């Protein structure tokens, strides 16, 4: 599992936040944290809005407690503030103490009050939200002109990002310590608006005690090998790609992605279709021999199987690769070949399905992408990269990285082939499968962000080398 330093990337679930709070109550105390949380909310609002009429909707838990504190600080700064309690906090709780310290105006928890305010702060439910809020709560939130959430919108599942009910969008959400998965995953990500994460001085031991297993993907969570004076092409790594006769484009894109992200050597195993590849990029090596013979070369550890392959072509190659215990990345045609029997893929190291391929293999994932991808990874014993606007990268041991370092520029045919090539290069460089997948997805995303407006897929390659250099530099800084 990742080391303690990875806490900086962690995305604790609401349940883990409960654990963190319990630990915090033994050390720093919840009231002190609540005070800093409410202060941070007031500061974030003062930095973004001119003084206006504010209504703070306060629930019965600690989220409501943060609301009372924010109300107190905004009032102290001269703003016009009212608090509308949904229900009073439990006597003796930190939120009870915060409510007692707020001596300003109180009003009804009603839609007309929300409508009259310029800005409504949602401190109804945060990490404690565990079921859909009542329609009366949604009616009040929906009446607001401008909404700011404390921690999480009261309609969003903080673990999955799912909307528990249909509700309004927020201008901004102010969370504490670390974002939660629900802030990163869609649709939660979109509902939250601008995301601010405030440091409230939570002791690191408390976050550690929460035992996070989900991280935000980025350099430092993994390390891509840098260029070294001792490099030679085999040390950088060999990527071998199974090629088909019908769709050479996909194979060529994967090969180009592998080369552009720093593979030492990329070889295409084309068998009888070799002629179609021989006039392609001159830096590629094309093999026309039988796969069985090619597998005698032990230096060819890493294989990509799937892009541009028909099911019979996969049937003729993938079982051989698995029998010879190669490190295999299965994508596209290889996933189609497995159909609805994902166990056929047992023995591969990484699979890279988009949501359609994932659904065909494992069934529809439902609202909880992370849970579905975890189950899938465990089922086949391979890293699963569930590709999308936010990609979910899961190891069979349960580690999850969420990648939002990407751009819609990547939503162009063939971009998945490029990604498969990049991940294969990371594997060939000696990275472990989950780290290689995380790195590949980040580099691909970085290339998409650098490639400008409406790039064609081939344009990504020109940015992969710089993306790799940036990942190496950033990881050193962390
Ligand atoms: N982690 C941190 O760093 C810090 C966290 N802090 C803050 O603490 C917040 C978490 O507080 P929390 O645990 O008290 O939960 P919270 O969201 O207030 O709700 C709990 C109450 O809601 C109720 N309830 C739930 N769903 C419901 C529904 N649909 N409809 C009706 N009721 C519902 C539930 O009731 P019950 O299930 O008991 O019936 C319970 O009474 C967190 O978001 C952050 O703002 C800071 O103060 C300090 C540092
Ligand atoms: N809206 C988006 N924002 C960010 N990345 C995206 C978006 N849409 C697609 N991508 C990325 O683009 C790639 C598309 O891969 P894939 O669906 O396999 O396409 P293809 O089969 O055409 O190659 C994936 O890495 C995916 O994460
Ligand atoms: K909230």
Automatic annotation (TrEMBL):
Keywords: ATP-binding, Isomerase, Lyase, Metal-binding, Multifunctional enzyme, NAD, NADP, Nucleotide-binding, Potassium
Pfam entry (one): YjeF_N
Domain of life of the organism encoding this protein: Bacteria
Catalysed reactions, as listed in the record: (6R)-NADPHX = (6S)-NADPHX; (6S)-NADHX + ADP = AMP + phosphate + NADH + H(+); (6R)-NADHX = (6S)-NADHX; (6S)-NADPHX + ADP = AMP + phosphate + NADPH + H(+)
Binding site for AMP: 387-391, 416
InterPro entries according to UniProt: Carbohydrate_kinase_pred_CS (IPR017953), CARKD (IPR000631), Nnr (IPR030677), Ribokinase-like (IPR029056), YjeF_N_dom (IPR004443), YjeF_N_dom_sf (IPR036652)
Cofactor remark: Binds 1 potassium ion per subunit.
SUPFAM superfamilies documented for this protein: Ribokinase-like, YjeF N-terminal domain-like
Binding residues for K(+): 63, 122, 154
Residue ranges constituting the YjeF N-terminal domain according to the UniProt record: 17-208
Cofactor(s) the protein requires to work: K(+); Mg(2+)
Residues annotated for (6S)-NADPHX binding in this entry: 62-66, 126-132, 151, 250, 308, 354, 417
EC number: 4.2.1.136, 5.1.99.6
Domain YjeF C-terminal: 216-478
PANTHER family: ATP-DEPENDENT (S)-NAD(P)H-HYDRATE DEHYDRATASE, ATP-DEPENDENT (S)-NAD(P)H-HYDRATE DEHYDRATASE FAMILY MEMBER
Cross-referenced NCBIfam families: yjeF_cterm (TIGR00196), yjeF_nterm (TIGR00197)
HAMAP family, per database record: NADHX_dehydratase (MF_01965), NADHX_epimerase (MF_01966)
Family, per entry: Belongs to the NnrD/CARKD family.
Subunit record text: Homotetramer.
Functional description taken from the UniProt entry: Catalyzes the dehydration of the S-form of NAD(P)HX at the expense of ADP, which is converted to AMP. Together with NAD(P)HX epimerase, which catalyzes the epimerization of the S- and R-forms, the enzyme allows the repair of both epimers of NAD(P)HX, a damaged form of NAD(P)H that is a result of enzymatic or heat-dependent hydration. Catalyzes the epimerization of the S- and R-forms of NAD(P)HX, a damaged form of NAD(P)H that is a result of enzymatic or heat-dependent hydration. This is a prerequisite for the S-specific NAD(P)H-hydrate dehydratase to allow the repair of both epimers of NAD(P)HX.
Protein name, as recorded: Bifunctional NAD(P)H-hydrate repair enzyme
